[in-house]
Write a structure and sequence with these properties.
This is Ribose-5-phosphate isomerase A. This protein is of the alpha/beta class and 225 residues long. It is 27% helix and 27% strand. Strand 14 and strand 15 form a beta hairpin. Bound molecules: ribose-5-phosphate. Ribose-5-phosphate binds next to helix 4.
Length: 225
């Protein structure tokens, strides 16, 4: 089993019968979904809230019952991947472009568990370009404002066209040299007109499931404030 497979499957152990489960997006949480699909087939009863069209499609194939955010009173647990995590369990997410829905679901969840192989662990966030979702209207101007914050920016493209999120927006990938104050940067970016949200998830993760070099599970828990 590869590292993503191991950590992805481990997270499924936290899902109990009757729970409403936020279903993240990406190649690590894919393995959580596969495991949940098998558990549902064996009789586990859950409702999933998908964070992307891609995840909704996979969950449907696996026959995991789905609901929308607005149909549920609360989310018991959300499980998702990350592009980077630091020792405070702050994250960069959005490599797959799903950050807005992911943040909405993570915020609404009583427990937010991140599944991440050890390559995602960093001392300081920022080696991975920070994804910022912007509305298409005025995107060039919005990108200029972001650049003024001393970050290098790049409009994400697929096949020569701007990449479009499930919300119909664009992603600007921003390289900041190192993000010493993630909370501050998160709110500065979100104050720029045209920015929908950014991939900094600060103080949101309750647990990161990763593994050590010997492939032993490591469960990192956030200290209660
Ligand atoms: O938009 C995508 C998400 O934030 C993913 O959870 C993140 O990019 C990690 O993905 P992966 O597990 O494929 O590295």
């Amino acid at each position: 089993m590869n590292e993503k497979n191991i950590v992805g499957e481990l997270a499924a152990d936290f899902v109990k019968d009757g729970m409403v489960v936020g279903l993240g997006t990406g190649s690590t949480v894919y393995f959580t979904l596969m495991k949940l699909g098998a558990l549902v087939e064996a009789g586990l009863s859950i409702q999933g809230i998908p964070t992307s069209v891609q995840t909704a499609e996979l969950a449907k194939k696996l026959q995991i019952p789905l609901a929308s955010m607005d149909e549920v009173k609360k989310i018991d647990i959300a499980i998702d991947g990350a592009d980077e995590f630091d020792s405070n369990l702050n994250l960069i997410k959005g490599g797959g472009g799903a950050l807005v829905r992911e943040k909405i679901v993570a915020k609404a969840a009583e427990k937010f568990i991140v599944v991440a192989d050890p390559s995602k662990m960093v001392k300081t966030l920022g080696a991975f370009p920070l994804p910022v979702e912007v509305v298409p209207f005025g995107a060039v101007q919005t990108e200029n404002y972001i650049r003024e914050l001393q970050g290098k920016t790049k409009l994400r493209q697929t096949n020569g066209m701007p990449f479009q999120t499930d919300n119909g927006n664009f992603i600007i990938d921003c390289s900041f040299p190192s993000i010493i104050k993630p909370q501050e940067l998160e709110s500065i970016l979100n104050n720029i007109p045209g920015v929908v949200d950014n991939g900094l998830f600060v103080g949101m993760a309750d647990m990161v499931i990763t593994i050590d070099p010997g492939h032993k599970p490591v469960l990192l828990e956030r200290e209660k404030q």
